[in-house]
Prior knowledge:
The protein contains 3 helices and 3 strands.
Amino acid sequence: MFDGKSILITGGTGSFGKKYVKNLLARHKPARVVIYSRDELKQFDMQQQYNSSELRYFIGDVRDRERLSQAMHGIDF
């Protein structure tokens, strides 16, 4: 279902988000996974943990409609 697709994960650096990314990458082959979160340090830490070309990092807050819209460009799920 997610193979070859682009996926946006809001709160991707939080507890649930990190676990979801781990399971997603273990079970599927997405073309791109956008990790959307407002914490730059957590995004940096996650980049160090995952050496995956599929992961992209986008700093933003879900309350910022325009920024979230930018992050959703080309997203399937």
